[in-house]
Amino acid sequence: MSVYLDNAATSWPKPETVYAAVDRFMRHVGATPGRGGHWREEEASRIVDQARVALADLFRAPDPSGVVFTMNATQAINMALKGLLRPGDHVVTSSIEHNALWRPLKALERCGVEVSAVACAADGTLDVGDVRAAIRPNTRLIALLHASNVLGTMLPIAEIGQMAHQRGLSFLVDAAQTAGTCPIDMQAMHIDLLAFAGHKGLYGPHGTGGLVVHPGIDLATWIEGGSGVESEREDMPADLPARLEAGTHNAAGIAGLLAGVQFVAEVGVECIRAHEMEMARRLMELLRDVPGLSILGPSRLDQRVAVVTVTVEGYAPEQLAAVLDQVFDMATRAGLHCAPQAHRTAGTLACGALRFSPGWFTTVDDVEYAAQSLSTVLES
Question: SS3 of 139, please?
């Protein structure tokens, strides 16, 4: 039996329509969107535009032209932070951020941007009052992940977004772990900048992602080059998305991403979340009585995404992951998960942890096999 439980890193398998969309684009379209002037170019542009609309609908974004394609969520976060912040600005973030947000913030801090990381509890939960207390006169941005890839904890994005809106602050959300798996309404949640990964809960290929920019948010360019429009200018076009999309798109990847988003819309985000959380619940129940095993994150399922991260007393997470892979053909993820701040908050920075992350295609048999396999390793 082969079991894949590393969907928090990359969802797999993909829907068949995603494979077909990439193959069709590569074999039958093949052109660069926005360049050329022939039917293949027009078809490529149509696919990219359709993907913008589908993503804007999924995230309840006010304008599809604000959907800017990137290679991944990390690139989108860098685009947002470095396009908005200047020396002397202050940013409020949390103590459980992924390196995709934390490292660019620290780089900006070395250039004169002030950063305050509000302490979360050991389970990753965050008090909105603590975020409010961290705001200063020079605060320009609140930047938070929606859910932790280590603890599974969902932060109170809607409440913080409302507070940011009332204070006139910009609000950036890293939705790498929630896009496609949790409902996101940019307007209701007052999200100004939404970074998403295409290869996780949206079931797209690697090398896809984006930044959704709310109208009225003006970002400086962080990369310049060809745009396919207004080529006579020596600077980038003023309007989105061309202003922030220099160079050739990953058009085949975007075709696959469109198919993934359409799959999510057809199944329903709420339905996907319900299934993933049921798989997580079953796994947590099966693991709770394992001697020496601790599950990180909140005990309440409504505060979590489908990430089940554990430590086992006396066992190195990397060793457990290796045995599960080599003996039981099971894909998990061990270590610090590119999120040392979350591990520091949870008290697991020194040893890391072992992560199981079910997805839409995970079955009850997969979950039971995972729990039994881990138990077998620990009993041997």
Answer: strand
Question: Which two tokens mark 151?
Answer: 């603890």
182 included as an active-site residue: no
pLDDT tens per residue, range 262-318 = 999 999 999 999 999 999 999 999 999 899 999 999 999 999 999 999 999 999 999
Rounded to the nearest 10 degrees, the angle between the axes of helix 251-267 and helix 16-24 is 150
How many helices (H) does the chain have, and how many strands (E)? 11, 13
The backbone torsions φ and ψ at residue 357, rounded to the nearest 5 degrees and listed phi first, read -135, 95
Residue pLDDT, tens place only, 21-58: 999 999 999 998 976 689 999 999 999 999 999 999 99
| DSSP state, residue 353 | E
Q: What values do phi and psi take at 92, rounded to 5?
A: -105, 130
Q: What is the pTM of this model?
A: 0.97
- Say which amino acid occupies 5: L
Q: Return phi, psi of residue 46, to 5°.
A: -60, -40
Contact of 145 with 98, CB cutoff 8 Å: yes
Alpha helix locations (H) across the chain? 16-24, 39-59, 73-84, 99-109, 128-134, 157-167, 251-267, 269-287, 317-328, 340-346, 364-379
Contacts of 99 (CB under 8 A, 6+ apart): 338, 339, 340
Sorted by where each starts, the structural domains of the chain and their CATH numbers stand as 3-12+269-379 (3.90.1150.10), 16-267 (3.40.640.10)
Tens digits of residue pLDDT in 85-117? 999 999 999 999 999 999 999 999 999 999 999
Catalytic residue among 111, 120, 338, 351: 338
175 contact partners, CB below 8 Å, separation of at least 6: 73, 145, 146, 184, 194, 195, 196
What does each C-alpha distance from 352 to 153, 155, 192, 295, 317 come to in angstroms? 17, 22, 33, 13, 7
Q: Which residues contact 85 (CB under 8 A, 6 or more apart)?
A: 91, 108, 113, 140, 141
